[in-house]
Design a protein that fits this description.
201 residues; alpha+beta; 8-stranded antiparallel beta sheet; 3 helices; 28% helix; 28% strand
């Protein structure tokens, strides 16, 4: 009797374990890839750059086209490439992010390049009041910006600085309705105002 009871309990435990394992597999299968906004990606990358050099400062960042068929239609991206440097030197450090994690990083200093002046660096991120999702909505509303249906990447995003006017700019890149011309819109990252509107590149 005791043996029969033990066997029955053992079978029940096996069945429960199997169900739990199946549930875990189903959950992991359905889990969506981690996508980040422009500012989320920069904040994730910054500590890594500071480990390289305490004086590391942001130069630019951009979303990276992916061939995995996960389009960026909401101002986020699975992949980002973020460049840091040391003002008034030729030293640079690149951080690549994929699915919410840093998957590659390293120094990319070009010894033949002239030193980059401080004017090209984004030294104060507190001046950035807008992020890629908000500005994508503005871009779509203002110019009927369409995503790419060829690269399967949706829209592209980036940030840089106008060194002459000392303005931080966020760029939203898409296409016209016929997908015949690339359209790029740059917004003032502090005010959210349209800075420039270009077509064909």
């Amino acid at each position: 009797m005791k043996n029969s009871l033990f066997v029955s309990l053992f079978i029940v435990l096996l069945l429960l374990t199997g169900c739990m394992h199946q549930g875990t597999q189903t959950g992991s299968t359905k889990k969506s890839p981690a996508k980040l906004t422009l500012m989320q990606a920069i904040k994730l990358a910054y500590p890594d750059a500071v480990k390289w050099d305490k004086g590391a400062t942001l130069i630019d960042a951009k979303s990276v086209d992916s061939d995995e068929g996960i389009a960026a239609f909401d101002g986020t991206s699975r992949s980002w490439s973020i460049t840091f440097g040391i003002p008034n030197t030729d030293e640079a450090f690149l951080v690549n992010i994929h699915d919410g994690r840093i998957n590659a990083h390293g120094e990319v200093t070009d010894e033949g390049a002239p030193p980059l002046s401080k004017g090209y660096f984004i030294t104060d991120l507190s001046k950035v009041k807008f992020d890629s999702p908000e500005l994508l909505k503005k871009a779509i509303s203002a110019t009927k910006l369409y995503p790419s249906d060829t690269w399967k990447t949706g829209y592209s995003f980036g940030i840089s600085k106008d060194s002459e006017k000392d303005i931080i700019l966020i760029k939203i890149i898409g296409w016209d309705k016929k997908r015949g011309e690339v359209k790029g819109l740059q917004y003032n990252a502090s005010t959210g105002e349209l800075y420039s509107n270009t077509e064909g590149g």
